[in-house]
Amino acid sequence: MKKIVTITLMSTLTVAGALYAQEKYVIPAEAEKAQVAAEEGLSGVEAAEKAVSSTSTTTTRSTETTTTEATTTETVTTEEEVAAAEQTTQGEGVMYNDGKMNYANSFTKFKLEAADSLSNVAYIEYRIDNSPFQTYLEPFNIAAEGLHNIVYRSVDHAGNYEAENVFPVIIDNTAPVVSLVTNEKTEVRDGVSMVPQQSEVRIQAIDRLSGVKKIEYSLNGAGYKDYTGEAIAVSAEEQYVLKYKAMDNLGNQTEERTLLVEGDGTAPVVAIRPSQKTVNVDGKEYARRDTVFVVEAADKKSGVKNIFVKIDGEENFSVYSSPINFSEEGEHTIESKAVDSVGNESETVKVTFVTDDNPPKSVIQAITNEK
């Protein structure tokens, strides 16, 4: 007796980069080999999941200002964008093999066939993972994502059971998670990602199952093109419109999303203002003891992050927190500078004045006609 069982995938298959329509795979009878392949595939899935958890960070966008520190792995992906990435290919069964593991989506159906040269095939039975065997009646699909083993065998009319065959397959319905990384500080203001002038933006995508097939992007209204890892330079103080998307090896594709990036190469403007007017006498500024000095800074793009001050020649700057008052008479100096949210630093502004709270002394002298 000779029995042959084949499993047919009811879809257009992508295997090692080539397309095959209604291709039949003859599954080797050695279940142990298939199980080894399945375990290797599972370890690959676990590694990818670890990569996702270790590199995917998110920054929530809102109308409020939020700041993230500069790192080479900082993302500007929002939580909404990550949710939008989990889109599935609707209706079309697809399969992919990377040379080690089979991948399919939940629309892919699996068909079992058997042949016997003597008493003929009585029936085929199969099970998925550890479920009980059931009689095969029609092509079936697998809904749940992740690694599965299809175990199947045929039985002839003489009661001979074929050795179990194992077909490992990873079901993948989820599009990649795609995000942007910058090499500088990023400040999100009203939906616009502010970055320093001459910054670089890169696109990254991670797919925990079948892997990323391609990333595409469009810059400032140009047509989409494949992204190959190159840096997208923000070289001018203008707004850049970056559209991007990614697809995995099963055709699961993220929705198109748009990021507005604006270069900020302008430092804040700093001013030191006295609470009451100072007086210039012979080239020196004089202020009363009760004069309070307020330090202000303004930045029209990414916004002021910190103001720093240095008083009376101190060695280091400290963060400005409240108005400054001098109780001691004599000459004083206030130096100040500011840094915006993407790191642009202003020039140092300095004021020098004399605190004068010592009133003049008057004398009276009588003028008479005496000589």
Characterise the protein shown here.
- This protein has 371 residues and is mainly beta.
- The protein folds into three domains: 3-56 and 89-171, Immunoglobulins (Immunoglobulin-like, Sandwich), CATH 2.60.40; 177-264, Immunoglobulins (Immunoglobulin-like), CATH 2.60.40; 269-355, Immunoglobulins (Immunoglobulin-like, Sandwich), CATH 2.60.40.10.
- 9% of the residues lie in helices and 46% in strands.
- The protein has helices at 31-55, 79-85, and strands at residues 3-9, 12-15, 18-21, 24-26, 66-68, 74-75, 94-97, 102-104, 110-116, 121-128, 134-135, 146-156, 165-171, 177-182, 186-189, 192-196, 199-206, 212-219, 225-226, 232-234, 239-248, 257-264, 269-274, 279-281, 284-287, 292-298, 304-311, 318-319, 324-325, 330-340, 349-355.
- The strands form six sheets. Strands 3-2-7-8-13-12-10-11 form an eight-stranded mixed sheet, with helices on one face. A seven-stranded mixed sheet has the order 5-15-16-22-21-18-19, with no helix packed on it.
- A hairpin with a 5-residue loop joins strand 18 and strand 19.
- The protein is rod-shaped.
- The N and C termini lie far apart (155 Å).
**Helicity, in percent?**
under 10%
* Fraction in beta strands: over 45%
**Count of helix runs:** 2
Coarse shape: rod-shaped
Alpha carbon gyration radius? 36 Å
In terms of per-residue confidence, which ranges show pLDDT below 50 for 5 or more consecutive residues? 10-38, 47-89
Strand order, main sheet: write it out.
Answer: 3-2-7-8-13-12-10-11
Kindly report how far apart the N and C termini lie: 155 Å
Per CATH, the class of the largest domain reads Mainly Beta
Q: Please, what is the average pLDDT?
A: 80
| Number of individual domains | 3
The count of strands amounts to 31
CATH architecture of the largest domain: Sandwich
Q: CATH superfamily assignment of the largest domain? A: Immunoglobulins
Judged by helices, strands and strand pairing, the structural class is: mainly beta
CATH topology of the largest domain: the name is Immunoglobulin-like
The profile of the biggest β sheet is: 8 strands, mixed
